[in-house]
């Protein structure tokens, strides 16, 4: 049997030298001996593609490595690490590298959630590889456990806090009553937020991660367009207070759930019981809660953003893929995209509970009328609580009628039935206003 030829060194082209790329470059430089030992051959950083050569850069890295010619860098590298973000030119550069059979490592969830399946197929076709552990929940190992460790089990549900910026904002709003804009600026300063933070606050960043997780958890491939997505912009201090009164906390959750005939993928502000493990996830930390048939409930927790933390996951992929290259071993086949997988179902086919806050007329028979609406749609009520409507006294007075606030928490029911309940309540004579509707998970 012929022994594989061990390369004397593997060349690494780095595309992007920003928050994450600068840390990858620093660690490749400072920990060169460690990587050489772990890989079995030195990793030689050949260049760092950036947009502008005028920006101040990481002091530990040789300034001569910076270039604006990303295409030339990709041309002959054994390993291409893409940390530019966005779709183009990242996609074309990665395609170019994969067509040459190179190892590609990326942290780019936006790209993987749109074109991951095609890029993985291209890698397989040309004998290269594509990995993106850093793309979901940054430093937390979650893609590899779903792909490899749980390959002998059936995953029913993946539910997580997948965006550090929004968790940081919601956490500070909940604990300090901090103002939204002020906390967002702090998240940007700390390097958690995307270049355009609307991707964070509108839930698109988490939605991309849900699509990637669903492919690995259920097989097949999903895109961001199949994720029903609502961000945190409409969450108010009143929502946080109402949640706290009910023993709940508001979190932006990404959920991929297997149903009998498909999978529902969603991102939305969610009320989580204070005693649930996800409720304890603070600041920019992320956590992914996995429910599998035989393993039961698993929780993966850690830093979900930040340059150094994300670089750890990027370099984990680099070392693993480089080691495969050195040993000449066949790369693993991805489950995502390799099997047909379940179809994506519309959000109306989700099954969830909701907390519905209403401002209703304070008169005999109103509770009966409200309860009747839930019964008509076969939605069971878990808890109902009536309280004073202090914040709306002036409105009630102006309207010449007295009102109270009703907080209803349902049992799990089909989303379509819950939507019908809310539509009927909005039209009911004794309901002055549907104040808020938020889904509840983890009960
Ligand atoms: P940054 O915006 O900080 O850095 C992007 C880098 O790419 C910059 O160095 C920029 O150059 C360079 N770049 C962008 N466009 C081009 C282009 N067209 N040609 C050449 N260079 C270009 O991003 P991050 O480091 O925060 O993120 C990188 C990737 O990692 C993204 O996909 C992100 O989603 C992902 N990620 C980020 C995490 C984080 O916590 N920040 C966590 C997990 C994943 P220049 O410096 O000149 O502007
Ligand atoms: N902007 C992202 C976040 C970075 O806040 O979680 C990690 O993907």
From TrEMBL:
NADPH binds at residue 109. NADP(+) binds at residues 15-22. InterPro entries: ACT-like_dom_sf, ACT_dom, Asp/hSer_DH_NAD-bd, HDH, HDH_cat, HDH_CS, NAD(P)-bd_dom_sf. GO terms for molecular function: homoserine dehydrogenase activity; NADP binding. Its cofactor is a metal cation. It comes from the Bacteria. L-homoserine binds at residue 194. It is an enzyme of class 1 (oxidoreductase). It catalyses: L-homoserine + NADP(+) = L-aspartate 4-semialdehyde + NADPH + H(+); L-homoserine + NAD(+) = L-aspartate 4-semialdehyde + NADH + H(+). Residues 355-439 form the ACT domain. GO terms for biological process: methionine biosynthetic process; threonine biosynthetic process. Pathway: Amino-acid biosynthesis; L-threonine biosynthesis; L-threonine from L-aspartate: step 3/5; Amino-acid biosynthesis; L-methionine biosynthesis via de novo pathway; L-homoserine from L-aspartate: step 3/3. Its EC number is 1.1.1.3. Transmembrane segments: none annotated. Pfam families: ACT, Homoserine_dh, NAD_binding_3. The keyword Transferase does not apply. The active site is at residue 209. Keywords: Amino-acid biosynthesis, Methionine biosynthesis, NADP, Oxidoreductase, Sodium, Threonine biosynthesis. Belongs to the homoserine dehydrogenase family. Catalyzes the conversion of L-aspartate-beta-semialdehyde (L-Asa) to L-homoserine (L-Hse), the third step in the biosynthesis of threonine and methionine from aspartate. NCBIfam families: PRK06349.1. PANTHER family: HOMOSERINE DEHYDROGENASE. This is Homoserine dehydrogenase.
């Amino acid at each position: 049997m012929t022994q594989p030829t061990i390369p004397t060194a593997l060349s690494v082209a780095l595309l992007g030298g920003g928050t994450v790329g600068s840390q990858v470059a620093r660690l490749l430089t400072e920990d060169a001996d460690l990587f050489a030992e772990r890989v079995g051959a030195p990793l030689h950083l050949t260049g760092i593609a950036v947009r502008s050569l005028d920006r101040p850069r990481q002091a530990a890295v040789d300034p001569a490595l910076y270039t604006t010619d990303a295409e030339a860098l990709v041309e002959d590298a054994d390993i291409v690490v893409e940390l530019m973000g966005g779709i183009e030119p990242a996609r074309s550069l990665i395609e170019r590298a994969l067509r040459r059979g190179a190892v590609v490592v990326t942290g780019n969830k936006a790209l993987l959630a749109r074109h991951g399946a095609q890029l993985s197929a291209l890698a397989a076709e040309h004998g290269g590889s594509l990995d993106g552990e850093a793309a979901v929940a940054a430093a937390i190992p979650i893609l590899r456990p779903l792909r490899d460790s749980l390959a002998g089990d059936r995953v029913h549900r993946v539910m997580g806090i997948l965006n550090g910026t929004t968790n940081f904002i919601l956490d500070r709003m909940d604990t300090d009553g901090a103002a939204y804009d002020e906390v967002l600026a702090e998240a940007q300063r700390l390097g958690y937020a995307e270049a355009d933070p609307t991707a964070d606050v509108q839930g698109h960043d988490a939605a991309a991660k849900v699509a990637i997780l669903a492919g690995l958890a259920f097989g097949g491939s999903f895109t961001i367009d199949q994720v029903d997505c609502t961000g945190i912009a409409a969450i108010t201090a009143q929502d946080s207070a109402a949640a706290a009164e009910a023993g709940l906390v508001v979190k932006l959750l990404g959920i991929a759930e297997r149903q009998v005939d498909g999978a529902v993928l969603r991102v939305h502000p969610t009320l989580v019981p204070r005693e649930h493990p996800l409720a304890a996830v603070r600041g920019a930390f992320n956590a992914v809660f996995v429910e599998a048939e035989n393993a039961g409930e698993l929780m993966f927790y850690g830093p979900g953003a930040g340059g150094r933390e994300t670089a750890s996951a990027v370099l984990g992929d680099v070392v693993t893929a480089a080691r495969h290259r050195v040993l000449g071993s066949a790369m693993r086949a991805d489950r995502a995209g390799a099997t047909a997988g379940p179809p994506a179902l519309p959000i109306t086919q989700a099954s969830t509970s909701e907390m519905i806050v209403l401002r209703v007329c304070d008169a005999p028979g109103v509770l009966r009328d409200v309860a009747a609406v839930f019964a008509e749609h076969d939605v069971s009520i878990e808890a109902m609580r009536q309280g004073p409507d202090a914040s709306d006294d002036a409105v009630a007075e102006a309207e010449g009628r007295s009102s109270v606030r009703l907080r209803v928490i349902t049992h799990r029911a089909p989303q379509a039935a819950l939507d019908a309940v809310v539509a009927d309540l909005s039209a009911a004579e004794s309901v002055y206003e549907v104040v808020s509707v938020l889904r509840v998970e983890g009960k």
